[in-house]
Amino acid sequence: RALASLVQTLQAPPSLVIGHSAGAAVAVRMGLDGLIAPRCMLGLNAALLPLGGLPGQLFAPVAKLMAAAPFVPRLFAWRASDPQVLRRLIDGTGSTLDPTGMALYAQLIRNPGHAAGALAMMANWDLASLQRALPRLATPLALVVGSNDRTVPPAQARTVLAQLPAHPLTQLHTLPGLGHLAHEEQPRLVAEIVQGLAQAAGLPLPAAATA
After folding, report:
1. Alpha carbon of 89 to those of 18, 40, 97, 138, 166: distances in Å?
2. pTM value?
């Protein structure tokens, strides 16, 4: 709702919406609720399904407990000042970043406000209801998946596609060897997929995108 309010204030209704991980779930929810009506959507390693098994049962209670403790974000940010902790976090995504990318993530995760926001989001996440609503999504959704994604299991993409209405633009693009941060590992490759989707949807591309 906050993003929809921003879009309305900017008077810039989107024609193509791209969401990474949880951002794809936000975009899909906005589409389902009629808050946006783009020509198409693209999910980059989209987190659209709840975790299965015991991890899925424990995720929400643990996140709520951590979000309720005001010291947790500062503790996380303090631990993240250790380069080895940052390296393990990025390795856990299945991606390999260059030094600039690592430095930018270090700046991000050492921010207690960012950690608090991420915990609050996870504490209130409800992907089970989103999964049940997927068959009602009127907007075509293309999925881009890194085969080495260790954050969102790549196999989830086919489960999602099976629940979506059939449409020529609702396709799966697999990127071999890339992880959860595939768009940062190979930005040009992902940009080409975005441009191809825009062209297939009949959307005009800006001059910079076609140069």
Report:
1. 24, 32, 12, 36, 36
2. 0.87
